[in-house]
Amino acid sequence: MDHVLRAVATACVAWLLVSAVGCGTTRAKIATEQLVMSDAVDKNIQDLDFRPLSGRKVYLDTTYLRQVKGSGFVNAEYVTSGIRQQIVGAGCLIQDASQDADIIIEARIGALGADDHSVTLGIPDNSKLASAVSVLPNAPNLPAVPELAVAKRDVQEAASKIAVFAYDRETREPVWQSGVRHSVSTARDTWVMGIGPFQGGSIRDKTKLVGSKFAFGRRSERGSPTDIYERPPVDYTAETRFNQGHPVFAGDDASDGMIGTLPSPDEPPEAADAPEAQIAENDLGTKLSDVDVQ
């Protein structure tokens, strides 16, 4: 019995030493849960490239999105709004009624949920074991031993799976499909010798120690799809200005306001191109004159 008491005393001393180093507790994770879920949806939607339908009148059919409403903040309405934003950003003319559209875009959700994981390097608390032993007859009461963790990590992981396809409203012929993709977003809280949580994961630009300005590392930037169309891609996660439906990026001529000054497709050639055009016209006129003379 003495060795048991010594073991418990040793554990308590170790716990006090760890507590003296430092500790941290995250009491509520509602905001983190919402960020993880919405980030998974945003990463999935930003990969949907609607530029093949640019300039067409389209209608978004949300029939198969309404059936996945949940109690969480991020649900079918958030997915629908995100898809609509990506459609508009691609230069499509979105319509409020299907009969006004030439193309019907149908969307579906294959996954929208989150998991929690926890890993502890050390001795977990024995509260559950003590409760189980207490129901046994003539069983001795086990002393309560708190969690003694050298390191601990809590991970929240959210996943979304969204796919869309388009077809002609009148002929019902297929026009385009996005393919099926899924995305995962994470949030990590890590404690080392009682110090923490160190907050990281894909929802944060940097890993930081909560309650301080200490931060290190940087997440890589998420790029847009490959530019294979005349219309440049619009980053779903970035602030973007539009002028006559075309996105305005850094380096383009832009006014001081929120509207850019991209040249209109019908605008005549710039002054720099005028001499070449004039030379070509003069050459053509010279050749025609030579033909007339002959």
Topology readout:
Blueprint: H1 2-21, H2 30-45, E1 57-61, H3 76-89, E2 93-94, E3 103-123, H4 127-134, E4 148-168, E5 174-177, E6 181-192, E7 195-200, E8 207-209, E9 215-216, E10 241-243, E11 246-248, H5 274-293
Helix pairs in contact: 2-3
List keywords for this structure.
294 residues, alpha+beta, 5 helices, 2 domains, DUF6655, nine-stranded mixed β-sheet
Task: Give a quick summary of the entry.
The protein is of the alpha+beta class and 294 residues long. It contains five helices and eleven strands, in the order ααβαββαββββββββα.
How does the helix and strand content classify structurally?
A: alpha+beta
The helix/strand series, from N terminus to C terminus, equals HHEHEEHEEEEEEEEH
Into which percent range does the helicity of residues fall? Answer: 25-40%
* Spans of at least 5 consecutive residues with low confidence: 1-5, 7-22, 220-227, 254-265, 269-294
Number of H/I helices: 5
What would the average pLDDT be, to the nearest integer?
74
Characterize the main sheet.
9 strands, mixed
Strand content: 25-35%
End-to-end Cα distance, whole Å, is 123 Å
Count of β-strands? 11
Please characterize this protein's 3D structure:
Pfam families: DUF6655 (PF20360). This protein is of the alpha+beta class and 294 residues long. It folds into two domains: 28-127 and 143-238, no CATH class; 239-284, no CATH class. It contains five helices and eleven strands; from the N terminus they run ααβαββαββββββββα. The strands form two sheets. Strands 1, 2, 3, 4, 5, 6, 7, 8 and 9 form a nine-stranded mixed sheet that branches. Strands 10-11 form a two-stranded antiparallel ribbon. The protein is elongated and about 80 Å long.
